[in-house]
Amino acid sequence: MKLAPGDPASFLMDPQMKPEAREQFRRDWGLDEPIPLQYAKWLNQAVNGNLGYSLISHQPVSDAIADRLPATLLLMGVSFALILIISLPLGVWSGAKKGSVFDRITMLTSFVGFSIPTFWLGLVLILIFSVKLNWLPTSGMQDPMLTDAALPQKIADIAKHMVLPVLTIVIGGLAGLTRYHRFGTIQVLSQEYILAARARGIPEWRILYIHALKNAALPLITIMGIQLPALVGGSFVIESIFGWPGLGQLGISAVFARDYPILMGILMMSSMLIVVGNLAADFCYAKVDPRIRTRI
Amino acid sequence: MLKVRDLVTQFRVDDHTVYAVDGISFDVQERQLVGLVGESGSGKSVTALSILNLLAHNGRVVSGDIEWQGNSLRNRSQKEWTQILGREIGMIFQNPQASLNPVFTIGDQMIETIRLHTKCNKAEASEKAISLLRQVNLADPELRMNDYPHQLSGGMCQRVMIAMTLSMSPRLLIADEPTGALDVTIQAQIVRLLASLNESLGMSVLLISHDLGVINQFCDYVYIMYLGKIVEEGPPKLIFESPQHPYTQALLAAVPSVHSNHTYSGMVVSGEIPSPINLPTGCRFHPRCPFAMDRCTLAVPELYPVGDGKAACFLVESSN
Lengths: 296, 320
What we know:
The complex is a heterodimer of chains A (296) and B (320). Chain A has 296 residues and is an all-alpha fold. Chain A contains twelve helices and no strands. Chain A has a single domain, classed as MetI-like fold (Orthogonal Bundle). Chain B folds into two domains: 225 residues, 3-Layer(aba) Sandwich (Rossmann fold), CATH 3.40.50.300; 79 residues, no CATH class. At the A-B interface, helix 8 and helix 9 of A face helix 2, strand 6, helix 4 and helix 7 of B.
């Protein structure tokens, strides 16, 4: 990060300012110290709950993140839930009907969805639905004209702004998960206990949605644990395309401004999400698989 | 009771056709314990799965008829099958631990099966499950109900599978190498259990196995399979004392015996079982048969009657 040319001083200051003033600024913010020392200082403060202040807005980093976090969580939460709700039955069904027309169409579509870069898809969706058809807003989260409107109207407005970014994330994320679900289902259905269950006359829907699903869910938990933080990371691109006032946008502007404290704060947040995601996955594992439970 | 006639089952693997079962006929009578013997890959399991319509997607019964209580089992609807599977014909498998779903308790799985086939509430089903587990001599059935399959040994899992199948009181139990994955001492216990259930409940059993000792001891009638065909059949006394088909003789010779006094100990089958994709012409055993004649490479021998049994070998035909 620090390797990139430029620093906050040159971003903030008038280019016509004297070099001495610039040095003064650097000294004031401790930017002239060796990097390891800067890091040690930051770490010391961070452990004590102080993430520092933004070099640009002088807002405490924790406040800046807290301001933006709800928007990101809303966008990602809705997208993640939608991805789960759609991909699970889609994947299970195409796995159960492997080789059928339905399966082939699903796989082809998901392949295409997987291949499309999100930034391109986002722009194309904006072009079609906002510019050409004028159905949906191009960017932002709320219409500034509606700040004083009633709550239901506000919710409807936010929902309207969410359609395109959510659609972009879902199309990208759906493809991979559907394939995982499909693969898991195919694998589980070839197991002997499925054959044995069929030999007991257990109806096919019970086999698929009770006997197979719980087993097929096991590897998926890991994948979802990994995908959860990846979704937050992916929001950098989506949020900057759609002007969504979330963490990602904050991060992007912090990168351009070399606003190190903010960047460090966001990175720490993402790392924590990865740890939390994996921990949650482990807990879910133990919940679903009795073989793991006994080993704990 | 069960009548299989000229059953042909094929699999499509890539662009090849695998002739897994090729025109076999056999019967299982009421209360009988019938043995089906053969090497791995001879089509025993496929035969069982063909009967129950449980073949994998690439497998298909091509021709022949399977008659159950006088009605054909072919071309039944999915709904009819849920009535037949378990209730009429039950099946247990080779690997008992893999036959139980790892993420549900023994109790869950038993109660599900019981409630599927008999109308009762959870408590009644649980009571029934415990009494069935007791019937198959599983120790501490109440405790085992809350266990998961991985907490049980292979033998215990097979007892659970048998109890679960018994809960549906099938008329016929197909046991596909039920002891293949178990210790020798447990094997004997499980087969003895099956034989005693056959006796006490009058339930017919089709025992698929390569354990000739077990077959000899418990079966009423035996079929020997080789590469998708039945090569010899008859009561065990006949098969074990005067086997007619060279393959049966070789099978018996391959059994390590403590007494080592059987007549065929010098006979060893050379080579491997041929691929069912590329079947030998004529008699399928001829490439490995020490008595093969020219004729064997050209024509397929039918089952010729010998005493109370039958054997598919030209040697038998000419000796008659």
